Amino acid sequence: MADYGNIQTQVQTQTQVQTLSPQQVLEARILALNTLELEEHVRSELGDNPALEDGPADVSATDNDNEDAGQEDDLQYGDEDYGNNDSRDDWDDDDDWYDRQPGGSGSAVADIPLADTRSFYDILYEQLREQDLTPRQMKIALYIIGSIDNDGILDKDLQAISDDLAFYHDTDATVDEIEQVLKVIQEFDPAGIGARNLQECLLIQIRRKPDSESKQLQERIISTMFDEFTHKRWDKIAARLELTKEQTDAVIAELVKLNPRPGSSLGETVGHSRQHIVPDFLLDNYDGDIHFTLNNGNIPQLHVSREYSDMLEKQIKEGTSSQKAAATYIKGKLDSARGFIQALKQREQTMTRTMQAIIDMQQPFFMEGDETLLKPMILKNVADKTGYDISTISRVTSGKYVQTPFGTFPLKAFFTDGVKNESGEEVSVKEIHRILREVTEAEDHNNPLTDEQLAAILAERGFRVARRTVAKYREQIGIPVARMRRN
After folding, report:
1. Is 53 left (phi over 0), alpha (psi -120 to 50) or beta?
2. pLDDT in tens, 384-443
3. Which of these, 52, 111, 341, 352, has the minimum number of CB atoms within 10 Å of its CB?
């Protein structure tokens, strides 16, 4: 009888793996930078690469360089020892210079605003510089600070931060490493900065207090009875901790003094902080049209060094083996300079096309400045309109701002889910946000409205929303729970 037990079979499977070229990785990193970060990165690149120079390019020299390029290709790129040139053929003739072309439509708008006071992030950076961190830890810390929202909360998963550091910043950092650096930032002022959720935010504040019996009770309540606390189940808390009514009232009075939005105490309020934020786009509307331009800030004109190009040509013509290493080094610097210029141009094109798509879809808002005119829009909508990947749209809109006649807004503010009213019409969540602001501002602060009452009011206005959903919308716009709005 044949023994089939040892028969081995081979199965072929086909998988598709997408590998990004170094140029694509560079372009993704440049795209993720805001205006201030880009200025800093350009200055750093100018200092690191002698083949990259600032100032306008010499037109005649550029023309000559282009004529020499064909000779250089024949001599230089035929020898693989000089390096890989896979992307060179994709470059245009003008890729030796970057002239900071303004994006968008129409003429330039207002003068570029510069930050004239300390911003939310300036205050955190100042505290960061006082820490004894390694360069690697500093890089991680800077990324964490840049990911903290205006409320002072880090709402980005640590694994996502690890992935971003690896992809965009060539830094392989473990979640444990990132958490250690985060703990340093969580020691900054005001207390609660860098917390990952409300519970951690409150605990950080409590632990800063002097030791006392009340402090111990507060920490125990938030650590082990957070659900009871958020739902105001004071009787359950009192029974579990065996507290009298007076003790319960005293400890709750201390807890409600804690700040659920520590970032707000630094004065950074979205839409009301033009002096704090350098916008990435400048937008205006006149004569019935919307015009915008990309804010290039203090980014200089750039060009590839003519001297370095001449040096490479000389090394190639001499062609001796002793010159090969020098030629390889020079070529690497020239390719790096051209690749950097190409990445800047790609950033301008991608940023401009994305902003135009957002304007096209949210035109009523940009004409009137009324947030209730914002239409439901998600990243995929913009991706479909521009032809870019969703990940590209996410990089363009993360941490970027646009200055409008109605204030300065993060691009993320124009993305919103839709809800249907009783007539079946899809309306932006911003309309519900507006109603919630309106009714809570007008409420009796001695008897503030509960989430159930807010849900009932929304239902009267045509929006049937569950209590839990009301709580989510309320938290999105920074309205505290009813007990914390009571006078």
Report:
1. beta
2. 999 998 889 988 988 888 888 887 888 888 887 766 666 666 677 777 888 888 888 888
3. 111
Residue partners of 343: CB distance under 8 A and separation at least 6: 23, 26, 27, 29, 30
Q: How far apart are CA 156 and CA 336, in angstroms?
A: 32
Residue that the structure tokens 């207090």 belong to: 209
Q: Any alpha helices (H) in 18-104, and if so which ranges?
A: 22-32, 35-48, 59-76
Q: For 418-485, which CATH superfamily applies?
A: Homeodomain-like (1.10.10.60)
CA 436 – CA 453 distance, rounded (Å): 11
C-alpha to C-alpha distance for 401 and 277, rounded to whole angstroms: 8
Degrees, nearest 5: CA angle 31-34-37: 105
In this structure, what token pair is assigned to residue 485? 């709005």
Strands (E), 257-339: 281-286, 289-294, 302-304
Mean pLDDT in residue range 374-383:
86
The number of angstroms, rounded, from the C-alpha of 23 to the middle of its chain's C-alpha atoms is 21
Tokens at 174, concatenated: 């473990």
* 199: Cβ contacts below 8 Å, ≥ 6 apart: 222, 226
Q: Is the confidence at residue 64, as pLDDT, over 50?
A: no
Asked whether 195 and 154 are in contact (CB, 8 A), the reply is: yes
* Tokens representing residue 39 in the block: 């200025």
Which residues, including other chains, have CB under 8 Å from residue 17's CB and lie 6 or more apart? none
Is 31 in contact with 392 (CB distance < 8 Å)? yes
Taking each helix axis as running N to C, give the angle between helix 22-32 and helix 321-361, from 0 to 180 degrees, rounded to the nearest 10: 40
Residue 376 neighbours by CB distance under 10 Å? 17
Strands 401-404 and 281-286: parallel
Measured in Å, how far apart are the chain's first and last C-alpha atoms? 90
For 325-355, how does the pLDDT look when each residue is reduced to its tens digit (9 = 90+)? Answer: 777 888 888 888 899 999 999 999 999 999 9
Residue 333 near residue 379 (C-beta atoms within 8 A): no
- pTM of the predicted structure, to 2 decimals: 0.53
Structure tokens at 363: 């035109």
